[in-house]
Amino acid sequence: MKWLRLVLLGPISGVVGALVFMIALKLLMELVIYTLGLIRGGVPRKDNAINLLVLAGQWLLLSLVGGGAVHILQDVLKLPSSQSEAAVAALSGLPLLVWLLARIPRQIKSTWREAMIPGRAQGTGADA
User: Fold this and answer.
1) Other C-beta atoms within 10 Å of 39: how many?
2) What residue spans define the domains of the chain?
């Protein structure tokens, strides 16, 4: 049964950990950008305030879903319980982490435009 935990649950643990970390990092960067946009940007304050409210909802969902998944994996299933499970989790989450890190600069640039430049709101086609 230990090999099943190693092969099946170890990779799931690594991927969940990487996703929760990257989503939290992205939300934190967006929070800073929209707060700067609220203070200084050329976009109406109402738009940035709405984006901040949406971010608050996303933080709540991340806390509930991501925190619940981490709680189940670590406290209920007791992962990782060995060094080999920890290594499998780290190695399985690493490619996803690298892929998501490569996407961050483009997402920051898009969020910055949305918060600071009038007429560049998402869905308007202005970024095309």
Assistant:
1) 9
2) 11-116
- Scan for tokens 């799931």, then name that residue: 12
Give CA–CA dist 20/67, Å, rounded.
8
CA distance linking residue 116 with residue 33, whole number of Å: 9
Asked if 18 and 91 count as a contact pair (C-beta separation under 8 A), the reply is no
Q: How far is CA 90 from CA 75, 94, 111, 112, in A?
A: 18, 6, 30, 32
| Per-residue confidence (pLDDT) for residue 7, from 0 to 100 | 84
The per-residue pLDDT for range 74-95, each reduced to its tens digit, is 888 887 778 888 888 889 999 9
- Name the pTM for this structure: 0.79
